[in-house]
């Protein structure tokens, strides 16, 4: 689920999702991942259409295809991770960004902590942060612990509640959060997380469960959620977070 619990710290936390947030969906990583997950569903003995339908259904119902696989099929989630996330040629698909690193450097660390909150397993999350040259800018990491039976993930309330415990923060209004999945953002908002932002790259598409879906579907949820198309916009949305 996470790194060891943090020591008592009264600073608010800025939570960043990782995939399709710290890098653009134009990298096509989600499509490459979708192909690998589809191939994994085929190993269940399904034909193409049935595999696509089940993949899509699990992704829609649980927020993570693997969540459905572990609930309804006898699969090894670590094996799944190795064959799907672990086989991605990430070093050829994403690269460090000076502007992104500067955005993190400009966060006022005297007033705020910075954590990552991801549905990926730890190995994938750490790999992405290392490639993006952001490892030293992340104070803590909360991830889906595939090694745990009945693990939880975004947008399940239990995932956010465990995140607060791990980060040793009792007041959810002290949480800032950005994610490319609007359902994940809405779930955090409904749990009282203070300043939630939807990262929405208009027009980009992702393949989930063998079906094309518009990323960050604006049909989901509430007009109260602030949207940005570029992470640089956080400087205006969350001005208090950055050094003056």
UniProtKB/TrEMBL annotation:
SUPFAM superfamilies found in the cross-reference section: HAD-like
One BP term from GO: nucleotide catabolic process
Entry's Gene Ontology molecular function annotations: nucleotidase activity
Gene3D superfamilies (alphabetical): 1.10.150.450, HAD superfamily/HAD-like
InterPro entries, sorted: HAD-like_sf, HAD-SF_hydro_IA, HAD_sf, Pyr-5-nucltdase, SSM1_domain
Pfam families: Hydrolase
The protein's name in its UniProt record: Pyrimidine 5-nucleotidase
Species whose genome carries this gene: Pleurotus ostreatus
